[in-house]
Design brief:
By secondary structure, this protein is mostly helical. It contains three helices and two strands. A hairpin with a 5-residue loop joins strand 1 and strand 2. The two termini are 29 Å apart. The N terminus is likely disordered.
């Protein structure tokens, strides 16, 4: 684990306390890196919103384009368009099911509403990699 001493003798454990070498998202106000961790979560949330809005725009534009076309779409074109819409829906849904609960749990942990420390390996080893693989 990466540790270093800061002013006052407190330890900074950047990669957490588990055997998993993944960034420590679940922090409290006492952790020296809490501002950095919360900033990263806000960047993740902003990226999620940007990706969702982008895919919704793609969906809207492809739907409008297919309606504007005067010629009838072939079966292959309809199938391709449905495939794009399905793929976009799966990406948005999996991102939502992964990141929103994760960000909410991190926020509740930071606010000391819950102790989510036991969930850290589940998010880090199972949920986040599954989402990355689907994307």
């Amino acid at each position: 684990w990466y540790q270093r001493r800061v002013r006052g003798g407190s330890k900074v454990e950047f990669y957490g306390n588990d055997g998993v070498c993944i960034f420590k998202y679940l922090v409290s106000e006492r952790d020296p890196q809490h501002i950095f961790s919360i900033s990263i979560l806000l960047v993740n949330f902003t990226c999620f919103v940007f990706i969702t809005v982008s895919y919704l725009i793609i969906h809207s534009k492809t739907t409008k384009h297919s309606r504007k076309t005067k010629t009838k779409m072939t079966t292959a074109q309809k199938k391709r368009q449905r495939k794009i819409h399905t793929k976009n829906s799966v990406i948005i849904t999996t991102d939502f099911l992964c990141w929103i609960p994760f960000i909410v749990v991190c926020g509740l942990h930071f606010s000391a509403v819950i102790d989510a420390s036991p969930w850290y390996p589940i998010f880090s080893i199972i949920i986040l990699p599954i989402n990355s693989g689907i994307n």
